[in-house]
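Let us work through a complete example step by step.
Step 1: write down the sequence.
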Amino acid sequence: MTETTERGERIAKFLSRAGVASRRDAEAMIEAGRVRLNNAPVTHPAVFIKPGDMVLVDGKPVAEPDRTRLWRYHKPDGLVTTHKDPEGRPTVFGALPPGMPRVISIGRLDLTSEGLLLLTNDGELARKLELPATGWLRRYRVRVHGGVSPDKIKRLADGMVVEGVKYGPIEAHIDSVQRSNTWLSMSLHEGKNREIRRVMEALQLPVTRLIRVAYGPFQLGTLPRGAIEEVNGKVLREQVPGLSK
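Step 2: predict the structure and record it as tokens.
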């Protein structure tokens, strides 16, 4: 999926493909003076690199990007989806098994959310699959406190504005009712930060459990809690058109 020109490849994109960070975070690293090219400081993310160039981040060499890989991870609750948490809370990346390469997440799940989290060593793939334009549906099982009326299901389907933020349509179906709790299946395309929790709170239906069961064509299935499994390369290429490596 590398796009090259005669000048080479932009360094921020190279760092993203190498799994160092997302392209946006790579640009922040460059701005902070943490990146050097052939022993000279990089001051702009549009600097181009060519084969044989040496790239250092925080004084450590960055290897050429590996082939693009993707993993399914069953995130438990109680982990934050970040490499380093300023509050010292346990992280997804700290919980991964030894021997895993450096990976980044495709989207996030908040501290108390569970379920399918896709991980990749390729920041460009992560960026592509997070974009609403990709059209991938995110599916969840959601438990809320309270009864869910047909009117509230319709409001979700029409899209909502909550505290000045516009949220797109969310498809929701009631699965079961257990005393004062309701289980729903919910599907959405974009997945803004804490979107389901915020719209349900606005409907006076606080979320008490949230489990992502699918991200596009990839399913949580029977993957055990805390387990990780690599997606077969052939399957990955079939599901992500244009992936060349």
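Step 3: interpret the result. Confidence is low (pLDDT under 50) at residues 1-5.
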